[in-house]
C-alpha cells in the first residue's frame, strides 16, 4: 500500500471550471505563475484546450507545479511544456477526438503523433513572440518534451517525466471525467481511471508520488461527483484516500 503523501487535493468547492479555467484563472488566483508565465499563457490562449476540454492545460500545469516539490525539474522547461503540451490540437474537430475516446482508440502513432508535431511548430512561434523561456537550450528541451509526450518513443529528462506524469493525472480529475465519461458509474470510472492513468505500464507508468496524488484525486473526483454514493465502491481499495477527502470537505 502506498503511504499517503503530504499533498493537498483540489478543492472543487472553490475550483473554477468551464471556459474561465481555460484562462488559467485558478492557478493565477493562487499566485502560482510568474509574470513571464502569465504572458506566455495569454499569448497561447487561442491554442489552449481545443478539444472542448476547458481546464486541461491548467490542471496539467497545476499538477506539474505540485510534482516540482518532489522532483528536480527545471521550471523554465517543465511549466511551459505543461502549459503548451497539447496546443497542437488546434484546428481539429473536437468531436473526432471524443469519438476516438469512445471507441478506445486514442493510443498509438496515428492518434497521437500529429498533434505533437504541430505542437512543436506552434510552441516555437509562441516562444519567439514572447521571448520566454529566455535560454535557447530550455526552448529546445520543451520542444523535445512536447514532441514525444504521448508517444514516448525516446528517453526524456526529469522535466519531461514530471510533465508526462502531470498529463496522466489530468485523466483522474472531475473535469476530465465530466468531459469524456460523464454518464458512467463509480465502478466504471474507477476501472477507466486505473486503466488509463493509475495502473498503466512502462513507459506510461506513474512513479509512486504521482500515483499517490492520482489516487487521492480520483477519490476526490468521484466523491465530488457522487457524494456518499461513491463510498461503497471506493472504501475497499481507496480507504485512506477516501478518509482524507471526506475530512477535507467536512472541515
Largest sheet: none
CATH names the topology as: Hypothetical protein af1432
Measured on Cα atoms, how large is the radius of gyration?
A: 17 Å
CATH class: Mainly Alpha
Low-confidence stretches: none
Number of helices: 14
Based on helices, strands and strand pairing, what is the structural class? mainly alpha
Coarse morphology: globular
CATH architecture grouping: Orthogonal Bundle
Distance from N terminus to C terminus (CA atoms, Å) equals: 26 Å
Q: Which percent band covers the strand fraction?
A: under 5%
Q: How many domains would you count in the coordinates?
A: 1
Q: Quick check: average pLDDT?
A: 91
Total beta strands: 0
How much helicity do the residues have? 55-70%
H-E order: HHHHHHHHHHHHHH
Amino acid at each position: 500500500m502506498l503511504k499517503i503523501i503530504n499533498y493537498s487535493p483540489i478543492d472543487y468547492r472553490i475550483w473554477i471550471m468551464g471556459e474561465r479555467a481555460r484562462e488559467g484563472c485558478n492557478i493565477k488566483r493562487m499566485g502560482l505563475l510568474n509574470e513571464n508565465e502569465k504572458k506566455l499563457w495569454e499569448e497561447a490562449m487561442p491554442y489552449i484546450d481545443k478539444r472542448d476540454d476547458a481546464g486541461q492545460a491548467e490542471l496539467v500545469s497545476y499538477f506539474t507545479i505540485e510534482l516540482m516539490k518532489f522532483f528536480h525539474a527545471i521550471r523554465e522547461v517543465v511549466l511551459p511544456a505543461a502549459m503548451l503540451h497539447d496546443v497542437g490540437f488546434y484546428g481539429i474537430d473536437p468531436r473526432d477526438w471524443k469519438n476516438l475516446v469512445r471507441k478506445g482508440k486514442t493510443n498509438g502513432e496515428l492518434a497521437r503523433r500529429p498533434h505533437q508535431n504541430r505542437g512543436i511548430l506552434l510552441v516555437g512561434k509562441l516562444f519567439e513572440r514572447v521571448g520566454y523561456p529566455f535560454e535557447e537550450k530550455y526552448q529546445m528541451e520543451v520542444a523535445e518534451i512536447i514532441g514525444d509526450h504521448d508517444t514516448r518513443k525516446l528517453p526524456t529528462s526529469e522535466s519531461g517525466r514530471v510533465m508526462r506524469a502531470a498529463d496522466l493525472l489530468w485523466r483522474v480529475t472531475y473535469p476530465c471525467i465530466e468531459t469524456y465519461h460523464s454518464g458512467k458509474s463509480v465502478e466504471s470510472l474507477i476501472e477507466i481511471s486505473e486503466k488509463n492513468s493509475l495502473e498503466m505500464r512502462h513507459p506510461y507508468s506513474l512513479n509512486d508520488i504521482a500515483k499517490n496524488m492520482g489516487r487521492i484525486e480520483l477519490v476526490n473526483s468521484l466523491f465530488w461527483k457522487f457524494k456518499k454514493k461513491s463510498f461503497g465502491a471506493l472504501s475497499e481499495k481507496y480507504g485512506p484516500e477516501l478518509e482524507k477527502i471526506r475530512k477535507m470537505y467536512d472541515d
